[in-house]
Amino acid sequence: MHRLTDGYTPGHEDRTALLSVRIARELQLDAQRIMQINMAAQVHDIGKADIPLKLLNKPGRLTDAEFTIIKTHVQVGYDILKHIDFPFPLAEFVYCHHEYLDGSGYPRGIKADQIPLESRILTVADIVESMSEDRPYRRSLGMPAALAEIRRQSGQRLDPVVVDACVRAVENDPV
């Protein structure tokens, strides 16, 4: 039996959306594109409604089999959103939020410019929010650690332009 939320995910989506919008503003994207990024961030983990709560809230490290189940949230989210007629590719933005520039992400292992900019923004915001906030399974690692991590992955897994915009957004207006 699954509940629709784990209690953590809605707040995570809100915080990820706020940071995504701040990054988009740093990149000087137009208002319509910023609204699209905000909407995608607000629902990027909708597919987690299909993941057992005991798995979402599991303390400690996940097994490979458990992580494989967690990764299905991207496909489930895409499958839900692709049937809704949005005037922009919202489902695709959500589908790509765990893809990385070097092709090491999931679910498709796409690379670089195959990943929409909106998704590259969402990926960076998701990582920063996930690391800098308490999670059901661990305490916050802090914003300095989150920024160090995205800097470490910049140019390899993460878009360096987006990483730089995120760092500027956080340093100019720490939350």
From TrEMBL:
Q: Show where the HD-GYP domain sits.
A: 1-175
Could you list the residue ranges forming a coiled coil in this record? none
Designated name of the protein:
HD domain-containing protein
InterPro entries documented for this protein: HD/PDEase_dom (IPR003607), HD_GYP_dom (IPR037522)
- Signal sequence span is none
* PANTHER family with a match to the protein in the record: CYCLIC DI-GMP PHOSPHODIESTERASE PA4108-RELATED (PTHR43155)
Pfam families attached to this UniProt entry: HD_5
